[in-house]
């Protein structure tokens, strides 16, 4: 059995310790070439004001994750992603409600087996889709709505009992949709609309005149 990860008080870095082995400094997580991305195909709700969709990675972690490992999604504001530091253990995972101050959080915790080649799973992941999140008091991850358009960057992180073991590269910046301001919506018709209305009125008047002339001709022809 493995003892939990330790932290060197002098440096703050993570340390691994086996039950019968002397302590050894944890190696850095393997950097995988996979880059998370928003699907290229047109999908309903692919990008909204508070959510976005990602392609679900498949066969990416098989060689770098054990049966007990979990895969997390790290979400960070794009200008804060470079400063993100992988947590040494699950107890140190940044939570959703810290996003306004920490500018990053981790969510969508799942068993590594859920991303295996043989795992039947949906093709996409929805980030920000849990509207019941907020004010959490437990250590459970939360996939709450994103509070601003961003942009955001994301990466996947494999966590084991000794801490992070593998990670993907960061995504390109993901910018959410923004709603139109009510002041930008004009209550008056555009010039093109006024011209169309005028033309329709002229055509209607001509039609009425032609109909009256035709009825007059028919009436005159009926008299002897």
TrEMBL record:
<keyword id="KW-0472">Membrane</keyword>
<dbReference type="GO" id="GO:0016020">
    <property type="term" value="C:membrane"/>
</dbReference>
<keyword id="KW-0812">Transmembrane</keyword>
<keyword id="KW-1133">Transmembrane helix</keyword>
<dbReference type="InterPro" id="IPR024831">
    <property type="entry name" value="Uroplakin-3"/>
</dbReference>
<feature type="transmembrane region" description="Helical">
    <location>
        <begin position="195"/>
        <end position="220"/>
    </location>
</feature>
<protein>
    <submittedName>
        <fullName>UPK3B protein</fullName>
    </submittedName>
</protein>
């Amino acid at each position: 059995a493995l003892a939990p990860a330790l932290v060197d008080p002098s440096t703050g870095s993570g340390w691994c310790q086996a039950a019968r082995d002397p302590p050894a400094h944890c190696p850095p997580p393997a950097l995988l070439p996979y880059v998370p991305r928003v699907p290229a195909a047109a999908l309903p709700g692919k990008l909204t004001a508070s959510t976005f969709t990602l392609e679900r990675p498949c066969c990416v972690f098989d060689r770098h994750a054990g049966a007990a490992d979990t895969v997390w999604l790290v979400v960070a504001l794009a200008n804060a992603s470079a400063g993100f530091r992988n947590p040494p253990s699950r107890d140190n995972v940044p939570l959703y409600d810290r996003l306004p101050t920490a500018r990053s959080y981790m969510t969508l915790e799942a068993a590594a087996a859920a991303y295996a080649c043989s795992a039947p799973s949906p093709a996409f992941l929805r980030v920000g889709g849990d509207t019941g999140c907020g004010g959490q008091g437990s250590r459970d991850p939360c996939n709450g709505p994103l509070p601003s358009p961003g942009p955001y960057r994301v990466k996947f992180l494999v966590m084991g009992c000794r801490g992070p073991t593998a990670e993907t590269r960061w995504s390109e910046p993901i910018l959410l949709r923004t709603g139109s301001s009510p002041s930008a919506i004009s209550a008056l018709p555009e010039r093109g609309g006024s011209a169309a209305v005028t033309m329709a009125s002229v055509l209607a008047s001509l039609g009425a005149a032609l109909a009256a002339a035709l009825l007059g001709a028919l009436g005159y022809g009926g008299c002897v």
